[in-house]
Amino acid sequence: MRDGTRVAHPVHVAEEIVVHLRLMLAGESLTGWASDDRGAERRFDGRLGLLAAIDALIAHAGSKASSTEET
């Protein structure tokens, strides 16, 4: 939350992923970039593209976490 307080999660959260969005609207057309705090960035077109970009960032974060756990 903006005031620095944490939200209680009903399940155990192993990792928090922060996603930043840069959105551009042209009429009803949505384009932009989604990025995480680790520097991964995905460009997207449309609302479904936005969801796919977020999914890709989550998968990227998961692969980084599992590779550090194996070492």
Short description:
The protein contains one helix and three strands, in the order βββα. By secondary structure, the chain is an alpha+beta fold.
Secondary structure layout plus pairing:
Elements: E1 19-26, E2 29-36, E3 41-45, H1 46-70
Antiparallel strand pairs: 1-2, 2-3
Structure explained in plain terms:
The chain is α+β, with helices and mostly antiparallel strands and 71 residues long. It has one domain (19-70). It has one helix spanning 46-70; strands at residues 19-26, 29-36, 41-45. It has a 3-stranded antiparallel sheet, with helices on one face.
Main beta sheet strand tally, sense and closure = 3 strands, antiparallel
Order of helices and strands: EEEH
Number of DSSP strand runs: 3
Distance between the termini: 33 Å
What class would the helix/strand composition place it in? Answer: alpha+beta
* Beta-strand content bin: 25-35%
Indicate the low-confidence ranges by residue numbers: none
**Fraction of helical residues:** 25-40%
Give the overall average pLDDT: 83
Q: How many domains, in number, for the residues?
A: 1
Can you tell me the overall shape? globular
Number of helical regions = 1
Major sheet: arrangement of strands: 1-2-3
Instruction: Give the C-alpha Rg.
Output: 15 Å
